[in-house]
Design goal:
single chain, alpha/beta, Rossmann fold, six-stranded mixed β-sheet, four-stranded antiparallel β-sheet, 11 helices, 10 strands, about 40% helix, globular
Length: about 280
Amino acid sequence: MSERKDYTNGPLCLSGRNLTRVFGTGAKQNVAVDHVNFDFHEGEFVSIVGESGSGKTTLSKMLLGLLNISEGEILYQGKPRDISSRKKLNEYWKGIQPIFQDPFSSYNIFHKIDAVLLDCIAMRGGRNLPYEKKVEMMTEACSFVNLKFAELTNKYPFELSGGQMQRLMIARIFLLKPKILLADEPTSMVDACSRATILDMLLNLRDETGMTIIFITHDIGLAYYISDTIYIMEHGKFVESGKADEVILNPQAAYTKRLISDVPKIHEEWDLSTVEMINNL
């Protein structure tokens, strides 16, 4: 478990005010994100926890600028976010980068690993660096995630395992060094051993670079293991938020209590009453 820190009085990097996203109109209207408010601080590890359909992935796409906002606003480094042009959006993306759930669809299948990493160096202004320097940077980034660049060069990402591809995504983040990393279920499609490795790498990345990490997950146990702050999301709303210990050890919302009770306990008989209740709906 990571050492928790209190970022309450630290500098803000990303905030939301009454953030809302509505799909459809009239009788078919669906409010996916419903007037949520949040403050994420520099260097903070934040988890947004909720079941499928709770709105957490829609929120993450809004934070990345991939979905328009129906109502409310996003503040980036204390100022209203401006992504009104492609140039401004690209500049914003230098400060916030994602790791997506499915590593197999996160790469262009026609680009080799060298090209993926060289693009990151170019984004950070290193396009004209000597090639030897670029190789040194790519080697360092791969070493950070326990990969050997010499064994990856001239290969395609699809030649790697799922766990290796997610680690390569972290190497990409290591090169880009954004202010904010948004990790949307980055461990859900890898095995348990790779999952623990990826979580530790994310923590090391935060500790080494000081970036803010927003971790989107349905797994409240993982969230507690890794987070400073937790937001619980249900039906598009934050029903509870606070320091990780406060939310998990002293939950107030009924939904939070149910998520915690649904975590299997090895030495106790499993309570399947919530599963039966859901199946009867």
